[in-house]
Amino acid sequence: MFARTEAPIFAFRGPMGIPVEVAPSFAMLAFVFLMIDTSVDGIVFFALIAGSIFLHELGHAWGCRVQGVGVSRIVMWGGGGLCYHRPEPDPRRDELIVIAGPLVNLALWAIASLASGYFFEAGPRSDMAYELASLLGSLAWINLILFALNMLPVSPLDGGRLFYLVLRRVLPMQDAGRVAGVVGTIMAIAWIPAMFYLFVTYGVLLFFMPSISQHVAMARGRALP
């Protein structure tokens, strides 16, 4: 697994003036993808994944900005993306920040699916339209998978944080943390065989694994998400 504290190899100022950093592990992730498929299609596929992850993080940044929460930077790393922002003590406001990222993926899935269907209808009459339909179809599936993956109730995925915040609506903070910890522990343990299954069956590599010890500590009331 990759560390989330890496010195960036590249940085630039992105939309909304937010600094964006590219970590060495992200370059390694790109290298692994391109080693598996060195064709133009492989390059395009990785670009679609990277772009979707980046837009996901911009969704979090937007959720911060509209509520006046400061964003320090976005980091693209081997495990995906991270949006660093000022801690938000209000759970209701934090919910918007957390859900904004997955909602971007859901919106991209819907738009790309509709556009893919439109161009697919024109496919028999145009090779370019057919290729574009296939590209948009891939973009749709990528974002649907990213949405589903991020909504799993395990930390530090968005679903884990959102699950805890929703529990905060009906439970005291410590109790919400314990429940989230128990569910997260089950998910983190199940993650291990799931990683092997995805690799053996579909050739999919997951470069991220949730911490079992962190979730056990949460379940015991010794930590919070």
UniProtKB/TrEMBL annotation:
This is Stage IV sporulation protein FB. It is a multi-pass membrane protein. One of its GO terms (biological process) is proteolysis. Keywords: Hydrolase, Membrane, Metal-binding, Metalloprotease, Protease, Transmembrane, Transmembrane helix, Zinc. GO terms for molecular function: metal ion binding; metallopeptidase activity. Its EC number is 3.4.24.-. It comes from the Bacteria. The chain crosses the membrane at residues 26-55, 96-120, 140-167, 179-208. InterPro entries: Peptidase_M50 (IPR008915). It is found in: Membrane. Belongs to the peptidase M50B family. Residues 45-119, 130-188 form the Peptidase M50 domain. It holds the Pfam family Peptidase_M50. The lineage of its organism: Bacteria, Pseudomonadati, Pseudomonadota, Alphaproteobacteria, Rhodobacterales. GO terms for cellular component: membrane. It is an enzyme of class 3 (hydrolase). Its cofactor is Zn(2+).
